[in-house]
Amino acid sequence: MKLKQLASLGLLIAAPLSLHAAEGGYSNYVPGFYGDLGVALEPAEGWSMRTDAYFYRADGEQNVRSGELEVSADLELSLAYFSLINKPGIELFGAQYAFGGTLVAGKADIEAELTAGETSLRVADDKTSYGDITLVPGSFYWNNGSNWHFNQAFYVVAPVGDYDVNDVANIGLNYWTFETDFSATYMNEEKGQDYSFILGYGYNTENDDTDYQSGDEIHLDFVLNQFVSPTLALGVHGYFFKQLSGDSGAGAQLGDFKAEAAGVGPAVMWVPEKFGGEAAFVAKWIHEYDSENRMDGDHVFLSFMKSF
């Protein structure tokens, strides 16, 4: 089976939830959700699906949530994602067109010490519910017959998830995010090399319940894989994240509160022969080794993907 067939399974819709940047110490950018194999390679024609079991444990200091100052916070997330993407066989702007979306549900558990004025209060909360939905109205794939592949994708995170301004733990974020990403993949089948880079820019609207608007964000994700057999690849995945503009609004009590972070970790990808190259399993761990004004922890993914 060809490496490009396997790589097409690595596409993933940039899934939502809230994990990095401003209000609460996180945003709709989730490291590790931009693909595992040949990120910029076009998927097979028709439907492709992906499921993810995702676990995140982190802590942070001096985060703002719901208009209050968190002196310290510990966060645990256990979430399930379901993503679908369709490539209908239409060519636009010289590229293959695709569209899709992602749903998420699970549990958030948080403990925090809050300070409002001269009053301090330690609180704990957990919630099991559904999160915001991510829509992919357009994803465009280009290849000129070389080892290089390119992709331009647009994402809209709609705030339909479970959110209550009076709760400390929330799955939804209660604001829109509009993001555009450009991806490039170098794929060398003979040498089993698969290298991808994703540059993304996100704009967040204001949370009307807290009068807090998280600043604009930029991120660079990388996926470096080496196939050690026709069905097994080992990789190093990671990211760099930076908030370009400051937080604003009446709820931004800490000022602009710009965030930045970086993380890296190992990945294993297995494509069983019995699926004929149309399915794959992925396990990866991204450890955040540097952060400022955001939660800081470990991301673990157990994923299955299949084309139909």
Textual characterization of the structure:
With 308 residues, the protein is mainly β. It has a single domain (3-307), classed as Lipocalin (Beta Barrel), CATH 2.40.128. Helix content is 2%, strand content 61%. The protein has a 12-stranded antiparallel β-barrel with strand order 1-2-4-6-7-8-9-12-13-14-15-16. It has a two-stranded antiparallel sheet with strand order 10-11. A hairpin with a 2-residue loop joins strand 4 and strand 5 (119-130). It is globular, with a radius of gyration of 19 Å. Residues 1-22 have low confidence and may be disordered. Keywords: Signal. Pfam families: Phenol_MetA_deg. This is Transporter. Residues 1-21 form the signal peptide.
Itemize the secondary structure elements and their pairings.
Elements: H1 3-7, E1 46-65, E2 68-87, E3 91-92, E4 95-116, E5 119-130, E6 133-143, E7 148-158, E8 177-188, E9 193-204, E10 206-207, E11 212-213, E12 217-229, E13 232-243, E14 260-270, E15 279-292, E16 296-307
Antiparallel strand pairs: 1-2, 1-16, 2-4, 3-4, 4-5, 4-6, 6-7, 7-8, 8-9, 9-12, 10-11, 12-13, 13-14, 14-15, 15-16
What are the defining features of this structure?
1 helix, disordered N terminus, 308 residues, signal, mainly beta, 61% strand, two-stranded antiparallel sheet, Lipocalin, 12-stranded antiparallel barrel, Transporter, FApF
